[in-house]
Structures
1.
Amino acid sequence: MTLTRKNLKGSMVALATPFRQGKIDERGLKRLIDFHLENETDVIVPCGTTGEAATMSHEEHKGVMSFVVDYVKGRVPVICGAGSNSTEEAVSLIAHAKKAGADGVLVVTPYYNKPTQEGLFRHYEFLAKKVDIPIIVYNVPGRTGVSIAPETVERLSKIPNIIGIKEASGSLDQASRILSLCDLAVISGEDSLTLPLLSVGAKGVISVVANVAPKKEHEMVQAYLAGDVEKAKKLHFELFDLAKILFVETNPIPVKTALALMGLASGELRLPLCEMKSENRKELMRVLKQCRLIKNA
């Protein structure tokens, strides 16, 4: 599928990367992808924050991108996380995603450098001109230390292959301003705010919750887009506790713990991330049981 501003929509999973004994667990990755294909996830997004791209070598990062694209085989679109705080490194990752056959790339704002708005604009402009692939800007200031201004997003919207923005600022005002200024597809990056963002014009979510409840997340987004607001609201409240507990500690610690409890993947993390606190793990188990994602002991 050729991704565009009009068809970038739905429930898109921010795919966790299973590790086993410090290595990429390809069998576990296949199991997760199969789980999403069976449960109607609309788009698969590997190598993002939830995928722990920050602790992958470039070789591993490129390998996971290729593996996911090859295994999915066009059954749903694949958007690969391909950002870096180095513009040249981002070019290399994006070029690999295109060569691998990805349908698009998710490119986080450069972290740690804290570029100005002009620097942010030039970063994305350079990437878009260098590699002809649909690009989704990823704004997550809580992780990167910088937020892209709506006015900068408006400038970027004039570049044809920049098709959307994943908004994880936590600000409904920010998303509303972007939607009022330009025609980019706005995608929620905050699970608990997905329904409110849909209500002002967002088209979907790149979701952590979808890792463990993909069908229900898909149904919530589709219900809203189809005009069934009451059904969407009901599903939002059913997913709300899950959305909160999966961020009780740094993502992806809780979601990988949940996947392990559900028997879907190893819960192994890479330092500097480590296992959940025992009290948070108990609360996670309670919510998973409440949502019928694991059985009562």
2.
Amino acid sequence: MKISIVTITYGDGAKLDRALRSVYEQVLTPGDEVEHIIVNSNKSLPPALEAASHRKDIKIINTPPHGVYAALNTGLAAADSDIVGLLHGSDYYPDNTILATVADTFRNGNTDFVYGNIDYVRGISAVRTSGSYKADNFHPEHLYYGYAPPHTSLFVSKKVKEALGRYKEDYRIAADFDYFVRLFLHPAGFKGSFIPKALVNMDDNGMSRTLYSRLYTNTVEKRRALRENGIKSSWGKLMRRYFLHFKHQNK
């Protein structure tokens, strides 16, 4: 089984080296392999990428910065594996068994996609987490309130990747939510499996974590995503996602 990990990077500095090492330290089931696709939007090649560029399992794509979702689409278009996952340049895997666990779940569960939890981290040392985003009790109906599993914990099969197509690049921060809506409500009825552990340690300085993004931009775009997928919604209904998020977080 082959797994493609798509990493997008722009200004991640030393955190990128941490992300790369967490991929290359993964211990896989014999016969499985990893392809690491890195979409680099920096003007030059960061030192961490320059040092890793000799590896046979790495594919570096240099492209001008056109936004997060454009970079993700570039990486996904280059992936031709059985499984595809995302790992941003500032994030990393918490231990060296993550990809083996994901691959075994696909193999043994006859599943089309898997997802899990994430832990938020601060700083390059990341000795302590600043909170968690848990999907243990997630149900597809929660999408109607604007609540979805953590995006960076998602791994999809090649079949799902091809069926869902690209992220919508005219969203600022909620194209990942739109992707989840299309995934869970797809007429093909894709089968998902939940892995009850943190699959990614995620840097908590992302743009979707700012107050303005949470209260306004996020709400506007999630309402749009639901409507574009044939689901009626309202501001009041979408505000319930904060209750769900608080309920499923462990601080």
3.
Amino acid sequence: MYRYLLGLCICLFPLISYATCNLSVRVTEYPPQYYQDSSGEWQGLAVEMTRALFKQAKCEITFVDVPWKRALFLLKRGGIDLLLNMTVTAPREKYADFIGPMLDETQVLTVAKNSHFKIDKLDDIKLLSKRIGIDRAVFYGPEFADKMNTDFYFSDKFEYADNKSNMAKLSAGRVLGIMSNQYTAAYRIRHVLAKGQFKLHPFYFNQTFVYFGFSKKSVSKEMLARFQRAYDVINMNGVFLEIQTKYQQLNHK
């Protein structure tokens, strides 16, 4: 009888463990990475990749809609478990464990189709006639961040706003361009901004990889290892690449 009960407990332990795995994941309305469909379900590139990871890890997801800056605050304190599309920086490594890479991310500039100004290096931005719209909480690369902190004539060429306001400014000609990652830029040109009126500037502000960022405060090392194993399996099987390819094709049809 004792052996039977012991065997039953061993068999049930993984089921209990999986059932109690439910992590909170930050999302917001930011297509094609995250958006809600007509039924209120979260969809998008980052959402599909996250669902694939959680399915392999046998864990449930609770999506939480909060702004990026607030999400970073919560991740530090364990108020949220996972942020997506995180650039690895030294300050963030103090409060987040990273698994990935998740996506390759290139920071690009969306501009009016009839614009022809030239940018070969960051210093060329100081010669522009108007400003560029950016998001305060986004990391655009170490060189960009350093110049924003040390070069007034460079930083003066940028103005902060949320995504909706930045697109409105670009459409009205109040800014020369708006910065975003390549997936978002392609989606906006194809599906959001006036059709045929905008394009990508050829200059790349930063090229890097972004990662799944887990809170050190709320996610145990054992749980992190579980997700690392899940990531290794589906990455090797080409699941992430298949999802990325699908969205690249949608954005360029």
